[in-house]
Amino acid sequence: GAGVSQSPRYKVTKRGQDVALRCDPISGHVSLYWYRQALGQGPEFLTYFNYEAQQDKSGLPNDRFSAERPEGSISTLTIQRTEQRDSAMYRCASSFPGTTEAFFGQGTRLTVV
Amino acid sequence: AQTVTQSQPEMSVQEAETVTLSCTYDTSESDYYLFWYKQPPSRQMILVIRQEAYKQQNATENRFSVNFQKAAKSFSLKISDSQLGDAAMYFCAYTFNFGNEKLTFGTGTRLTIIP
Fold this sequence. Notes:
heterodimer; A: mainly beta; 4-stranded antiparallel sheet; B: mainly beta; 6-stranded mixed sheet; about 50% strand
């Protein structure tokens, strides 16, 4: 696609529910990254993939958070048993091998009520 | 662990004037990359400029330039001839791993342009 696409743009969920956030990277981009941005803060790294392999998940805050990219393209970030503290903007970025520029999606704003 | 510090939560500048946003970072690596990202009210993340640590020459992109002081671990952004469209949050970011964009961001500086 023309850019990194994330869906949904907004998600309101009740505490305790599971949510799945989707990222469709730019075609041909091997690397895919997930970040979380709290209001008034900079993005914080969660996890990243090269192709379908999850290379680093050190930023996932706890085991309620997981991510997958089964075919090396679209990725899903899943949060189980959501809590109010999970409310944030979740951003996806992708990059082409051998470059230093990551292209960010518009983000998914998650609100847990 | 790498850290990025932006000590100016807010800055303002008159339209057409020049403003400098500060950023310092901490790393034990010798080769790394530094970035400035712009986040307008639409909340997109837009790459403004990047600097490779092994290059001594400061990066420039039109009205945007950096002052990279490697020994001081300082990476400031200068915006010349400020325009209303420059109003945004600006984030400084760092990565040491070429090709794998695990970025560490600062907390941001909110820039206001005064007409």
